[in-house]
Write a structure and sequence with these properties.
elongated
């Protein structure tokens, strides 16, 4: 992003690098989130559970893994495109990020408790 800010790049290159243009790097970022959610799915499957808290953690992790499908499919379908850049794209991105943070917070707390006991 510093390269974009400090250099005179062509619009084509900016479209690839700038996340707000929903280009290549944005899609790589979304794919990274997809693989992270897929890894939580597999962790949830293999997680040994002994009590209710651990079972809840397992369910949260497995459900989080479902996000892989949307993170993988949305770029293929062109859901995010340059026409969304600006206010609409920012609002949608903000809402999705807030939802993800609210969803992932219990996973963090329950994971801490799980590993603290191990």
């Amino acid at each position: 992003m510093t390269t974009i800010r400090l250099s005179n790049l062509s619009e084509e290159i900016i479209g690839i690098l700038d996340y707000s243009k929903f280009g290549l790097f944005f899609n790589f970022n979304l794919l990274g989130y997809g693989f992270m959610s897929l890894s939580t799915f597999f962790i949830g499957i293999k997680l040994g559970t002994k009590n209710k808290q651990e079972k809840v953690l397992r369910y949260f992790l497995c459900i989080h893994g479902i996000f892989f499908i949307s993170c993988f499919i949305m770029p293929l379908l062109g859901v995010f495109n340059v026409d969304m850049a600006g206010k609409v794209g920012d609002i949608i991105g903000f809402i999705i990020l807030q939802f993800w943070c609210l969803y992932f917070m219990p996973i963090c707390v329950l994971s801490y408790k799980y590993f603290k006991n191990k």
